């Protein structure tokens, strides 16, 4: 297996050396969801500058290394409690950025601290995604993922009808993956130290739950993380005796099948 797709990586925080290493390892396409900048935002303009940077400059930077780059636009959960800033940013997000080139989903959105302020922004963005028939990438919190998953389930069951085939729940662990799949959603497994999964744990989840609707990602960002987590996990799965078909599905084709639902996901394997 020499072809990989990383469907969740924050290259805004990574170097050109990372791009070179990723290309050499066989990563052909990536999706970069919106996230926090490492410090509090001071105005709506900081959101707009960031989204513009991802759509234009970061896409070109990836292509310089032979990697196709797509974007998800959102107010990230870590920024969702700021008032009125988080609410004010939703207007220009919807009006100016969601229909731009290479924007394939709204995301990531969801929970960080798991509170009502975050949920307000989460639900508003889910409603925007549904109204525009867009894909959505949902972030399970770093801590207490089970509670986050339970609240997501309530939103799906009690709110407007969201197309579940267009929803990706990311950062699953052993205690949430079953519920994600049971609800008919796509599932992301983030291989990232401390708050998410190791390659060994990801491999065990695949062994238990199979490969359908599951995709491996690195979620690499400002923290201690590895932009080569997808190929490294593929190696671990191979050493654990997982079939090449299951490796290819979870490290390449499932992500492609999810994102190709977006008309702006123009890349083909």
Which sequence of SSEs, written as H and E, runs from N to C?
EHEHEHEHEHEHEHEHH
The secondary-structure class comes to alpha/beta
Would you tell me the overall average pLDDT?
Answer: 96
Q: Catalogue the unreliable spans.
A: none
The biggest beta sheet reads: 8 strands, parallel
Percent helix, as a range, is 40-55%
- The percentage of residues in β strands lies in 15-25%
Q: What can you see in these coordinates?
A:
This protein is of the alpha/beta class. The chain is built from 9 helices and 8 strands. It has helices spanning 16-25, 44-63, 85-97, 116-131, 145-158, 177-182, 199-209, 229-239, 244-259, and strands at residues 4-6, 27-33, 68-73, 103-110, 135-139, 167-170, 186-190, 214-217. It has an 8-stranded parallel beta sheet. Helix 3 links the parallel strand 3 (68-73) and strand 4 (103-110). Helix 2 (44-63) crosses helix 3 (85-97) and helix 8 runs antiparallel to helix 9 (244-259). The longest helix is centred in the N-terminal third of the chain and has 20 residues, at 44-63. The two termini are 14 Å apart.
What order do the helices and strands come in, and which of them pair?
Layout: E1 4-6, H1 16-25, E2 27-33, H2 44-63, E3 68-73, H3 85-97, E4 103-110, H4 116-131, E5 135-139, H5 145-158, E6 167-170, H6 177-182, E7 186-190, H7 199-209, E8 214-217, H8 229-239, H9 244-259
Parallel strand pairs: 1-2, 2-3, 3-4, 4-5, 5-6, 6-7, 7-8
Helix pairs in contact: 2-3, 3-4, 7-8, 8-9
